[in-house]
Each structure stands twice: as structure tokens, then as C-alpha cells.
Design a protein that fits this description.
The complex is a heterodimer of chains A (325) and B (341). With 325 residues, chain A is α/β, with parallel strands linked by helices. Chain A is built from ten helices and 15 strands. Chain A starts with a strand and ends with a helix. Classes of the chains: A alpha/beta (325), B mainly alpha (341).
Chain lengths: 325, 341
């Protein structure tokens, strides 16, 4: 597990003439090979700025980024492209191209002017297709794929580029739930099996916790927090992502929850059932009050208040508004 | 199988091109039978000296110009479409044809103000004026290109320059004499004929110079299909590529406009035809494919424009659009094509 990318006391931002606008300061991080790292943070916190700096498109005001032995801005463009590849969220893709041709484009930095693939290049393309399980679609045109398959093809392209580091900027933002999971687990596998350092910028906290080996949390005005997802949950640092007055991370459920007043109701029953009933009450902002104890029972599901029985939460809400008021 | 199919279409297009070339040579106000033509071309002996004269000094250079113009315009159109990632881009989006027109307009229309009206204006003079005009507009656009980072801004600036220059031409036309105006209008309709061997040679040289850099940048154009950010992440230098595109289209489309006038349509349509025929986005196929189809299309249009059997010819600019537009509309409607760009 080597450090392939490190940032030390970084300060980043944009320059326009004499004006310097600092967006991020005092950043410290390490990206390890063989690991999937997820970068999380609210919109506008400067994730894209950090990615741009890692890609060598902006020069840090202070501090340094090191990719292997040099700062990304000091690499010649072509050398850098052999160390680092990217996948973006926007799918700008020529529909006429086949998957195989797209993945072949990943070999661009290694090709001569004509862009003809050598035997070795083909080997890399095949490996990338195999690693992303896109083998069976290799002759398919991109216009005929689903969004999830297309994004996998883009990942295969990035792999064929054969860099040590792969950076993905919100790769799953257009995808459905199953595809999101699938792609993140795929990336986790690739990081491990091919010893790549993979950095994913994402908003998907759940899936990031599920799949990442390391999390980077960014929030306005606080330094970047890095650590094992589980550690960050247990020491509550994960709450740094959230506006603390309104939300909190529930370590038991592994979910973000709204902070709210206690409903003031006494609910009894098995933990799961109570949890969902309370959730429903919170969502309703229910003002329903009763001195009586509420029982939630299983098999079949029912809610018992005194001698009244309701068979669903909806029914409970409906009746409680009329009869109990 | 895919490679075989591609090769088949290439051979087909090449054979069609040779046939069109021969037909183009043979047909015209004087029809020359194909056997006379072939024996004359290969043995150098002609039955009638008038045939020799017509073919060697009039039709052969004209057919060659049609081929070269077809190649040059298609290649510029293709690189513009890929560079701007816009299916509507063509060789003239950066204002090259307006610039050429501007140069010629100054020569033909402003003569009465500047005091050289009535002079006999040779085709060399028109060509030089056209080149100067195209180069100066291109230089202005390049100045902007140097400052802006993204290609969309460049596209808008190019179109605006074109519009402004066209407006100046209109003002000139408004104040000019009827005779001069007619000369300018005829120039703007385009013509493939009337060029001597010297000019054809120069055009060939310019075509070579303009097309050569494309050969070296095939890899970059392919990478650019994924957009500038991806291309850059794959080691392509977008700034260098932008200059290559500006210079290459400047030379290719600029020289054709200068010698033949603005020829519409071919540059936009042919790359789309090539994509439809070869079903590929790969520039290793599209560059030669567009060149072949462009040359063939312009030869065909020129042959039709000669109105075989009659002494009249139609302006090439009108024919390309009249013939080409229905063909492209039909193809585009048949296949759901905007998705396939």
C-alpha cells in the first residue's frame, strides 16, 4: 500500500489578474494504491478545484501536491496522462463509436500519430474490458448502451490508459440505485486487484460508506478529514459533512437523520417497528398527543392504542386525526 | 468483417470517383466519346486537335479543380465538426468565405471609389484578393482564439465576424455600379472552370500543405471526440490542435474560396455522408472517406451543372445545394441521425 498522491498544506484557488481567490487552504491528504477513496462534501466546497489541482490544471498557491515523485503541473502533458486518467459525470459520447473503439482511445498517449493500436495496446484494451465485465458488449455501439453500461465503458477506457491513479468526478450521478452500487463495487474490486489508487468524487454517502476504503470529507471552513469510513462514524467526525443543527448521522442505522424534538409519545414494540413509526411521525411533523401507550406489534403488523387497532401507519394517521383529537 | 466492409466501401468510392472523372471529362457542350478520350489520354494522339484542346486545356484542369475542391472542403468541414463538436459546423464557420468575399468585393466593387474601375481583372487578381481577404479575417479570428480558452466562444466569434464582413460587402454592393455588381455576383456563385495549369498546380500544392497536418493529428482528432477535457487528460494539447485546425482550414477552404468562389454545402454535408456510409467516428476512416466522397460529389455536381448537350452551364454553388440538399435530407430522415453524430 504505497502513497501515490499526497497533498501537503495545500492552498488552492483561482487567480484573475492581481486578484487571488483562495477557495481551499491547509489541505493535507494521501491517496494509496490498492484503495478506493471517496471524496464527499457539499456543493461549492471546492471538490472540483481540488480535482483540477490534482489533474495539474491549476497551480497551488501554497503547499505541494505530489504525484509519485513530482507535482502534476510539472509533468509534461503526455507523461501525466500515463500516470493519471479521469472519468467525468457528463456523458459526451459519439454514438457511432463501438465500446472497443472507445476503450482503445484510452491508449491515445501511447500511440503514434495515426492512432493505430499495436498488439500490446490490444492486450490492455482486452484486460480493461474484462475487468469491467464489458467483454460481451465490445462490438456494441455506444448509442445503443444504457447509461450504466456507457459509464462502465468510460471506466474501461480510463483503465486502458494504464495510469496509477484514476479520478472519477461524480461517475454515478446519472445512474439508478442498482447501477450506482454495481459501479462502486466494481471500482473497489479494480482498486484491489489492479493495485490502482482510485479517487471518486461523490454525493452518495451510503454507497461510499459501503464501498470505500478511505473517505475524504470536506466542509466549508474546516480542514479535510480523512479516515476509514467506520472510524469516522464511530468517532462522529462524519457529522462534519452535515449542518449540525439540523442533521446527524445515526451510527446504528448508518443513515443521515433529521434532528427533531422527541415526539413525546411512548411507543413500545420491537426496535425496527418503532423506528419506522417514529420516522413516519417525524416526517408528518405530527402534533398528535396521547397519554396512552402505543404498542406496535408484528405478524400481522398492527398498531394498538388502548383498545383501538390500526393495520397500517396510514390508517393510524387517518383515524387518529378524527377520533383521538 | 468490419475491416473488409470498410475496404469494400473505399474501393467502391474510388472506382466511382474514376468513372465520374471520365464522365466529367467526356460530357459538356461538345460531347467526346469515352474511347476517343481514353486513347487520347493514354497515347497522347487525338483524332481531332479540337478535342485535344478542349480536354487538356479546359476540361482536365476543371475536373482536377473539382476533385481538389471537393477534398479540401470536405476535410475542412470534418475537422471543424469534430473540433467544435457541432454537426452544423462547416469550412466557413470561422468567416473564411466572408473574408474571401470581402477581398474580392474590395477588388470588384470598390474599384469605382478607389479609381481602378474599368481595368481588366484577371483570375489571378481575384484569387489574390480572395486569399488576402480570407487571411485577414482569419487573422482577426486567430487573435481572439489566442485569448479565449473554449471552442464554443471561438465558434460564436467566427460566425459574428462572418456576419459583420458580409454586412460590409452589402454596403459596398449597394453603392457600386451594375456592371461591377454582376461580376461580384457571378464570383459569389462559384466556378470550377477558367483556371490555367499554373493555378491548378498552386491549388494542388496548397491542398497538400493544408491536408498534411491532418494526417499527423488523426490521433488527436479521435481523442477530441470525447470532448476537450477528456482529450487533455489523454495527453492531447488542445491549444496546439486549435492552431492546427485554424491554419489547416484557412489554407484549404481559403484557397478554394479564392480560386473558385464560395462553394456551399459540400463542406457540411460530406462528412455526414461519410459517417453514414462507413458508420464510424474514427478519423482514420473519416478523413480519407470524406475526401473521396467530396471529390465524387463535386464532380457529379459539375457534370450535372454543365447541362450535357447544351452550351450553358449552371453556377456550381447552385448545383451543389440543389443536388446535395435533397440527398442529405433523405439520408438524415431515414436514419435517426442527430443521435449518431
Amino acid at each position: 500500500m504505497d502513497q501515490v498522491l499526497t497533498g501537503k498544506n495545500l492552498s488552492l484557488g483561482y487567480e484573475k489578474g492581481q486578484d487571488r481567490k483562495v477557495i481551499l487552504s491547509d489541505l493535507n491528504f494521501q491517496l494509496y494504491s490498492g484503495q478506493l477513496t471517496c471524496l464527499l462534501g457539499p456543493n461549492g466546497v471546492g471538490k472540483s478545484t481540488l480535482v483540477k489541482a490534482i489533474l495539474g490544471r491549476i497551480r497551488p498557491f501554497e503547499g505541494e501536491i505530489k504525484l509519485l515523485d513530482k507535482s502534476p503541473v510539472d509533468y509534461p502533458r503526455e507523461k501525466l496522462s500515463k500516470k493519471l486518467s479521469v472519468v467525468l459525470s457528463e456523458p459526451i459520447i459519439p454514438a457511432q463509436m463501438t465500446v472497443e473503439q472507445l476503450v482503445g482511445l484510452g491508449r491515445t498517449p501511447y500511440l503514434k500519430w495515426s492512432g493505430t493500436l499495436s498488439e500490446l495496446d490490444r492486450k490492455y484494451v482486452n484486460e480493461a474490458l474484462a475487468a469491467t465485465k464489458m467483454d460481451f458488449l465490445r462490438k456494441e455501439r455506444l448509442g445503443e448502451l444504457s447509461d450504466g453500461q456507457r459509464q462502465k465503458a468510460m471506466i474501461a477506457r480510463a483503465l486502458a490508459q494504464d495510469g496509477k491513479v484514476v479520478i472519477l468526478d461524480e461517475p454515478t450521478s446519472h445512474l439508478d440505485l442498482v447501477n450506482r452500487h454495481e459501479i462502486m463495487f466494481l471500482l473497489q474490486d479494480i482498486a484491489k486487484n489492479q493495485d490502482k489508487a482510485i479517487l471518486v468524487v461523490t454525493h452518495d454517502l451510503d454507497i461510499a460508506i459501503e464501498t470505500a476504503h478511505q473517505l475524504w470529507l470536506m466542509n466549508c471552513g474546516s480542514p479535510l478529514i480523512a479516515g476509514l469510513p467506520e472510524d469516522l462514524i464511530l468517532n462522529a467526525q462524519i457529522n462534519e459533512l452535515l449542518p449540525k443543527d439540523r442533521f446527524f448521522f445515526d451510527p446504528k442505522r448508518g443513515k443521515v437523520n433529521l434532528r427533531s424534538e422527541d415526539s413525546g409519545l411512548e411507543i413500545q414494540g420491537s426496535e425496527d417497528l418503532v423506528f419506522w413509526l417514529e420516522k413516519a411521525l417525524k416526517k408528518r411533523k405530527s402534533t398528535f398527543r396521547t397519554e396512552e401507550r402505543i404498542h406496535v406489534l408484528e405478524n400481522p403488523f398492527r398498531i394498538q392504542v388502548g383498545d383501538r387497532i390500526y393495520h397500517s401507519i396510514a390508517e393510524f394517521f387517518e383515524e387518529s386525526q378524527t377520533s383521538l383529537r | 468483417m468490419k475491416t473488409n466492409q470498410n475496404a469494400f466501401f473505399f474501393i467502391l468510392a474510388a472506382v466511382a470517383l474514376v468513372f465520374l472523372f471520365l464522365i466529367n471529362l467526356g460530357l459538356g457542350s461538345v460531347s467526346i466519346p469515352i474511347d476517343t478520350l481514353l486513347s487520347g489520354l493514354f497515347t497522347g494522339e487525338w483524332e481531332k486537335s479540337s478535342h485535344r484542346e478542349i480536354i487538356l486545356n479546359y476540361r482536365f484542369p476543371k475536373s482536377l479543380v473539382a476533385v481538389m475542391a471537393g477534398i479540401a472542403l470536405s476535410l475542412s468541414g470534418l475537422q471543424m465538426q469534430t473540433f467544435f463538436r457541432n454537426p452544423l459546423a462547416g469550412p466557413y464557420v470561422l468567416g473564411i468565405s466572408s473574408g474571401g468575399g470581402f477581398g474580392v468585393a474590395i477588388l470588384l466593387l470598390a474599384g469605382s471609389f478607389l479609381g481602378f474601375s474599368g481595368m481588366v481583372i484577371s483570375s489571378w487578381a481575384t484569387a489574390i484578393a480572395g486569399i488576402l481577404g480570407a487571411v485577414s479575417v482569419l487573422a482577426l479570428v486567430s487573435l481572439v482564439a489566442w485569448r479565449v480558452r473554449d471552442s464554443m466562444t471561438l465558434l460564436i466569434v467566427g460566425i459574428m465576424f462572418g456576419a459583420a464582413v458580409s454586412a460590409i460587402i452589402s454596403v459596398l454592393a449597394f453603392f457600386s455600379e451594375a456592371e461591377a455588381l454582376k461580376l461580384y455576383t457571378i464570383w459569389s456563385m462559384g466556378s470550377l472552370g477558367g483556371l490555367g495549369w499554373n493555378q491548378v498546380g498552386l491549388l494542388g500544392l496548397l491542398l497538400g500543405i493544408g491536408a498534411f497536418p491532418l494526417l499527423l493529428a488523426t490521433r488527436s482528432f479521435n481523442a477530441l471526440l470525447l470532448g476537450e477535457t477528456y482529450a487533455e487528460s489523454m495527453g492531447i494539447n488542445p491549444v496546439r490542435l486549435r492552431w492546427l485546425v485554424i491554419i489547416s482550414t484557412g489554407i484549404l477552404a481559403g484557397s478554394i474560396t479564392a480560386f473558385c468562389g464560395p462553394i456551399a454545402f459540400v463542406g457540411i454535408a460530406v462528412p455526414h455522408l461519410a459517417r453514414l456510409v462507413w458508420k464510424s467516428a474514427d478519423h482514420r476512416i473519416l478523413f480519407p472517406g470524406s475526401a473521396l466522397l467530396g471529390a465524387g460529389l463535386l464532380l457529379l455536381c459539375d457534370t450535372i451543372g454543365q447541362l450535357p448537350g447544351s452550351a450553358q452551364t449552371l453556377p456550381i454553388n447552385a448545383v451543389t445545394s440543389l443536388v446535395g440538399a435533397p440527398v442529405v435530407i433523405a439520408l438524415v430522415l431515414k436514419r435517426n441521425f442527430s443521435k449518431e453524430f
